[in-house]
# Entry
Amino acid sequence: MIVKLSHDNIQRHDWRAEFKRLEGAYAPATIKSYYTDVRIFAEWCDARGLEALHAAAETVCDFLEHQGVTLCPSSVRRRLYAIRKVHRLLNLPDPTNDENVNLALRRVRRSKLGRPKQAKGMTRAHLQRCLDVQPDTPWGLRNRAMLSLGYDLLTRRSELVALMSSDIELRGDGTLRAIIRRSKTDPFGMGRIGFTSRRSARLVGEWLAWRGNAIDPLFCGIYQGKPINRSLETTKVKLIIKEAVAAAGLPPEEVAAFSGHSLRVGAAQDLLCAGFDTAAIMRAGGWKSVNVLARYLEYAEHNVWA
# Structure
């Protein structure tokens, strides 16, 4: 007989309070995702009179297959990881180690034949058009510098807004040397070094000349025409990119395909077409996996027979 224990059990274990232990050990975005996933799992169990903490392996299997109807496999896998994490935080038996859970996840993956969506790459041709349409205003100065630097450094949007003024250095050849101190694949801050074109060095120099030296973030917000000492949100990078490609005259269906990842994707595709090998591209973008890089390069207009 199924007994409705979920609500009382959750209150007794107070899993929300336990999630505070993750602070500092995981990125805030990861903690937020785990929190949301566990809440959805708990509500799903509660609606069906099932125990969420600790959950039976059969419950987890049913939940994964239910979620797989509407979610992509990567999102279902993330929810599985969240269930695993909360059980371990509470020192409860982990149901996710059961082989049936592994089989349920495989069924979800095999049922989705579509490939993961890839952001449209902002290649050099797109980038130049986006730079050309920026207005001659403080916002235009900042956006030109951001777009150019993000492309040259193959940054994720979180890396781009995390750059500090002290993270860049002008080199004798007129280019910039930058250190990206932390990233999605570098949670412990080992950092990676990147280099830029003279174009980026010039545009960043023009932006800094207007912004001044009293601001810590390299790219800050602008309020009433004045810089404020605060980093931009990651969502702002996506907005700047979409507004730039729209202003450049791209059709709405193409604008929709661009995202905050487009600078990284487009630069990687351009490096491939320029003849750089895998090791060079991986170093430039900080990739650890050839398989991940291959997904970025999949839609590059690179015909080896041409």
